[in-house]
Specification:
heterodimer; B: MetI-like fold; globular
């Protein structure tokens, strides 16, 4: 009798635990509301962004102005991680659980295809967005299967920095970059190398490659990576380390921070990097002697630049889509983008936001605008994370291998896995 | 005293009217519940209630994810294809894992790394333990300071070593700088496979050897001096004392150190993540790093789940082998 009572009691405790667990799981997976709220209604929307200091503050300034212009809409900022992997995980947790918040969110240019395939982001078709007003390459990054899913917020093109005091006329071909670098190294003993670029095993290795790629007629299409243009581009980077030796082997550990450090410290006449370098403190020898151009094209190529930047999307489960889109329209309007560029240096995604006022505050934005016409997006595929992993491994192998045929061999070997990763639809 | 007279448990005659001690200690099989039983039941209930929050918490944060991971390993779950159904795929994830050259290569690397690092750590750890066991001036300070690397989080020690091996800022290249031109600095990580492994190996051993040394030192301290005295009287040399006395008596400490270090080496992640990111190429990618890359970075939850289960199975198998090999000898 007593024994039975104990068994029952234990079963009760286990039952309570199970119910608590089930309750927790249910709470985690509770879906959001789907009834649409008109933009004119009084409402609160949640905006998720990565928590970057001055950029976050500038976003808040813009939101305050938006709320003042739209008193019926209150915006709550949900600051997520500034680490891109963690940021993506945080967003995914919300989406998988079916949460209706955040209503609107910041997205890296590589995320929209993934979110669109999963049905987590709202197609923008219903709002009839005027995408032609933005730089075309970033619009392409937010387009999946012909439908727009994200609006360009700011457009960060990676390009070639050079020292105007050492390189009197900007190079017009990849071969001239090498010869100019060699000449500069001979002329200035303070230089430690001829060019700095990101060759660490991380996402930056892909954008550095993309910056050079189109100059050789290459294009990073996962379904066909083993092309003569891609091989030529990778051969040029490989030769920079092993043949001409204008780049030190240390580049294999460099990310954009180290590349920036080399350039602003006056150790290199060339560097492949993002526009933010222009706003960094520089040694006297470099200050005022900075040029910023697309990577010069070789035969059969076009000037090269890689697309970076952020976009804005709307949660597919939100009930406040209209208000969310209104916020997106506001944040991506020309005056707001110009103000953001002046305040924190984020390059506008609208050509019309590159105004005289912006050039007066920061003249280098004229070069940034030019680069934005060339910036190539990374492959637009839902499985980009896997494709990116494969590409990083491939580039890292090439930089570690002194063989002259390393680039083509690596592309030939990597082509199958990248192609299959890009085209994979397992489980379907 | 009659032979039929009942005796107590101690063999003395029991006093009349009083049950034997054995009987007193044996619970009654029949009859009413002893006084206080209800209270005992109440106490037990209270005990269950008090531990229930912890049990629920543990279930939520350990049992639930573990079980859910096993569930996922048998389903298609890839967040890059969030629009596809989370359907049952049987052993497909495990088959894909076994057929993956990347996984097989990572398994080989992990096993080789484990074997090399364990052998090195045990030998050097033993030498350090023997040294610290001797009496000398500053022994206490040495014992305390040798623990510093072990007490440091691996992320911190790996970052320190990454900086030390940096061709621009590290002391390693600074010292080697005398042998090659300053501008063509020697890169340890990212260029050469073997140099990357050497750097990782040094960072890992620097961190973990003190742990082995302290465990073995604790084992040395419980070996009585008499045994060594007896060996010396019998004419045993230092080597004979070490192999015939020290090693056999250190067996329990060695087994603990081996199990801990083997599991740590099999699951090595943070030092790889910080120092090489699995590169150059994927030449320093270990099983744990591959699981992280598949599960967290590529968000392939199903395949990553299968890989993590295999890693746990591998760790359990190794633990089982060690426990069997080092179980106490019975006469």
């Amino acid at each position: 009798m007593v024994m039975k009572r104990h068994v029952r009691w234990r079963a009760g405790v286990v039952g309570v635990a199970a119910i608590a667990l089930a309750g927790g799981a249910a709470a985690c997976s509770s879906g959001g509301s789907s009834s649409a709220v008109a933009a004119s209604a009084t409402q609160t929307i949640v905006f998720a962004e990565s928590g970057l200091g001055t950029e976050g503050q500038q976003t808040q300034v813009a939101i305050n102005a938006f709320e003042k212009a739209n008193p019926n809409i209150k915006v709550t900022v949900q600051v997520l991680s500034s680490d891109s992997t963690t940021y993506l995980s945080q967003l995914e947790h919300d989406f998988i659980s079916g949460s209706s918040t955040p209503d609107v969110f910041e997205s890296d240019v590589t995320y929209p295809a993934k979110f669109a395939q999963a049905g987590w982001v709202l197609p923008l078709t219903q709002f009839k967005p005027e995408m032609s007003q933005f730089f075309a390459h970033e619009v392409a990054a937010g387009t999946y299967n012909g439908t727009y899913y994200a609006v360009p917020w700011f457009d960060n093109p990676e390009g070639l920095f050079y020292r105007t005091d050492l390189i009197k006329t900007p190079p017009t071909s990849p071969a001239q970059v090498v010869s100019d670098a060699e000449a500069a190294m001979k002329a200035d003993p303070a230089l430690k190398e001829g060019i700095a670029f990101e060759a660490d095993k991380y996402e930056g290795a892909i954008t550095a490659f993309l910056t050079v790629d189109s100059a050789f007629g290459g294009s990073l299409d996962p379904s066909n990576v083993n092309t003569p243009g891609n091989v030529a581009a990778l051969n040029w980077l490989h030769a920079a380390v092993y043949t001409s030796k204008i780049a030190p082997q240390a580049v294999t550990g460099w990310q954009e921070g180290q590349v920036e450090e080399q350039f602003v410290s006056g150790y290199t006449p060339f560097a492949i990097n993002y526009p933010f370098v222009e706003a960094q403190p520089m040694v006297a020898a470099v200050k005022g002697h900075v040029g910023y151009i697309p990577f010069p094209a070789g035969a059969g190529g076009t000037p090269g630049s890689a697309l970076g930047g952020e976009m804005l999307g709307i949660n597919a489960k939100t009930a406040h889509a209209a208000a969310a889109y209104k916020l997106i329209q506001y944040l991506t309007s020309a005056p707001v983008e110009t103000a953001r560029a002046i305040a924190v240096g984020d390059p506008p995604s609208l050509p019309s936001a590159y105004t005289a006022a912006l050039y007066k505050a920061a003249p280098y934005f004229a070069a940034v605008k030019t680069l934005n016409n060339y910036s190539a997006p990374r492959p637009v595929t839902p499985n980009y994370l896997q494709v990116s992993s494969d590409l990083q491994t491939l580039f890292s192998s090439v930089y570690a291998n002194a063989s002259p045929s390393a680039a083509s061999a690596a592309f030939a070997a990597g082509a199958a896995s990248i192609k299959s990763d890009a085209a994979a639809t397992p489980g379907s | 005293m009659s032979v039929n007279q009942p005796t107590g448990a101690e063999g003395r005659p029991a006093r009349a009217g009083r049950p034997s001690l054995a009987r007193r200690l044996t619970p009654a099989r029949r009859g009413p519940a002893p006084v206080g039983h209800a209270r005992e039941t109440g106490d037990r209930r209270l005990g269950y209630l008090l531990v229930a929050p912890v049990v629920i918490l543990l279930l939520a944060i350990t049992a639930y994810p573990l079980i859910y991971n096993i569930w996922n390993a048998f389903h298609f779950e890839n967040l890059s294809y969030g629009g596809l159904p989370h359907k049952f795929v049987g052993w497909a994830n495990f088959t894909a894992m076994f057929e993956s050259p990347q996984w097989v290569a990572a398994l080989e690397r992990t096993l080789v790394f484990t074997a090399v690092t364990i052998a090195f750590d045990m030998v050097v750890g033993m030498a350090l333990a023997l040294m610290m066991h001797r009496r000398f001036r500053g022994r206490g300070f040495l014992r305390a300071s040798i623990l510093v690397p072990w007490a440091m989080p691996t992320v911190v020690s790996a970052l320190l070593w990454k900086t030390m091996f940096d061709p621009g800022a590290g002391f390693v290249d600074y010292i080697l700088g005398a042998f090659h031109p300053a501008w063509s600095s020697l890169s340890w990580l990212g260029i050469s496979v073997w140099r990357s492994w050497v750097a990782i190996f040094i960072a890992d051993s620097w961190k973990n050897i003190p742990f082995v040394a302290i465990l073995l030192l604790a084992g040395l301290q419980v070996i009585p001096n008499d045994v060594y005295e007896a060996a010396r009287i019998d004419g045993a040399s230092w080597w004979q004392s070490f192999t015939r006395v020290t090693l056999p008596l250190l067996r329990p400490a060695i087994s603990v150190a081996l199990i801990f270090r083997t599991l740590q080496a099999l699951l090595v992640f943070d030092v790889i993540y910080i120092m090489s990111g699995g590169g150059p190429g994927n030449s320093t990618e270990t099983l744990s790093y591959l699981v992280y890359n598949t599960f967290i970075i590529n968000t392939n939850i199903g395949l990553g789940g299968a890989m993590s289960i295999m890693l746990v199975v591998l760790a359990l198998a190794v633990s089982f082998i060690y426990v069997r090999a080092f179980r106490p000898q019975t006469a």
